[in-house]
Amino acid sequence: MKNVTDSFVSLGHWPSAGSLGFNTDILSTNLINLSVVLGVLIFFGKGVLTDLLDNRKQRILNTIRNSEELRRGAIEQLEKARARLRKVEIEADQFRVNGYSEIEREKLNLINSTYKTLEQLENYKNETIQFEQQRTINQVRQRVFQQALQGALGTLNSCLNNELHLRTISANIGMLGSMKEITD
Where does the signal sequence lie (predicted)? Predict the structure, then answer.
């Protein structure tokens, strides 16, 4: 091994004019070395690089297909959701309209029942007033009758003497006796 390295070192000391050898100048050899390395990489790595790029391309295409399928599914779900939303909005409008009409019906029923109740209360009030008026009239008649009776009795007592009183009683007894005979 020592001989091989010595031979490369001794080659570096050869004169460059007119002979073949290795150029040990790093700056001038970089371009050549780089192009050789790239050429070898391209030649040997072309298959690997092509396989890597094909795999990457296939994964990207699969991802795009999956994304398209997911997009289509999302669009279908969105359309279904929009259809459900429209249906729910229509039902809500119907409920709202039916609710308003139901409220109006209930309002009219309540107003009508309130009017009927008020009419009944008015009738009860009028009946109560008539009853109270009749009762008051009857009380007044009773008092007037009592006062008239007391006045008549007072007048009779002051005008009647014992003899007239006895005749009136006898006449009344006679009338009662004749009525008894008629009824028998």
Answer: none
Judge whether 64 and 71 are in contact, CB under 8 Å.
Answer: no
Instruction: Output DSSP code: residue 12.
Output: T
Terminal-residue alpha carbon distance, the chain: 180
Alpha-carbon torsion, ordered 150, 151, 152, 157, to 10 deg: 80
In angstroms, the CA 26 to CA 16 distance is 15
Is residue 159 exposed (0-12), middle (13-18) or buried (19+ Cβ within 10 Å)?
A: exposed
pTM (whole model) above 0.70: no
Whole-angstrom Cα distance, residue 62 to residue 64? 5
**Would you say how long the chain is, in residues?**
184
Q: Answer yes or no: are the C-beta atoms of 112 and 120 closer than 8 Å.
A: no
| Cβ atoms of residues 176 and 168 within 8 Å | no
Percent of the chain with pLDDT over 90: 38
